[in-house]
Amino acid sequence: MSDLTTALAAGRERARAHAAEREAHAAARAARGQARRSATELEAVARDASARFADETDASVVLRWAAAEFGDLLAVACSMADTVLPHVVAEHSPWVDVLFLDTGYHFPETLGTRDASALALRATIVDVRAELSVAEQDAAYGARLHDRDPATCCRLRKVEPLARALGGYEAWVTGVRRDEGPTRAGTPLVTWDAKNGLVKINPLAAWSFDEVLAYASAHQLPANPLLADGYPSIGCAPCTSRVAPGADPRSGRWAGLDKTECGLHT
User: Structural domain of residue 138, as residue ranges?
Assistant: First the structure.
């Protein structure tokens, strides 16, 4: 048997074992049937945690708490610009649900990163899609809505689908960092997300972009190739452009428009 054949066989066996562990976790979670608490109860949890972690910078501290506090009802939102966030969370919450907004407009590199993460991480990738396909949206609103009305396009393809997906959870974890721009400079580690009615956790808030890259390298994580090609912040292909060295990392998002956020974090 050649070295290549042996390597391929070993890879297939790892993939089978990976899938079996994920399926076993899903079955155990279904058997537990954890019930979701009320918004009033969750808001109280968020308020207490916000004060408790106000001066915290260690992601592991807040994520250990989140794993114990929310159990199966914790989700991660990941854009697949990198896979650091789901890896960090899965260290404390193995096979956590990772919600990926499959907008229909992603770069091929982003979809490839999603596929690689499903094989490499102890996480459960959940594709979240809009009610309308891109073709159906074009028929209803006209082609290239993102050029004419990006706020509505983001609402249809990101904000509303994520809100529906989050309905079954108590808390969601995001990769928002304070160094990403002025609109995110005051990001807390834990807050109450009144719009979605659940706790919002930002464990990497104090991290720098370089720290994210260093973590990915140290743990040999799948990374979106666009990060090394001038895209420090990656969204939908029609609305994302390269960023000049030293510029605001999010300046390539909706460049030339009076828009800095898609609405998920506002």
Answer: 37-239
Establish if 234 belongs to a structural domain. yes
Total domains present in the chain: 1
**pLDDT 10s digits, 41-81:** 999 999 999 999 999 989 999 999 999 999 999 999 999 98
Domain membership flag for residue 14: no
Tokens 């916000």, residue located:
50
78 is in an annotated binding site: no
CATH of the domain at 78: 3.40.50.620
What letter does residue 75 receive in the DSSP assignment?
E
Query: What long-range pairs does 247-256 form, CB within 8 A, spacing at least 24?
Result: 248/181, 248/182, 249/179, 249/180, 249/181, 249/209, 250/180, 250/181, 251/181, 254/150
Residue type, position 95, single letter: W
Q: What is the pLDDT of residues 179-206, one digit of tens each?
A: 887 888 889 999 999 999 999 999 999 9
Whether residue 180 lies inside any domain: the answer is yes
* Catalytic residue check, 78: no
In a domain, 127, yes or no: yes
153 marked as part of a ligand binding site: yes
Record the pTM: 0.91
- Residue tagged active-site, from 23, 262, 263, 266: 262
Tell me: is residue 236 an annotated ligand-binding position: yes
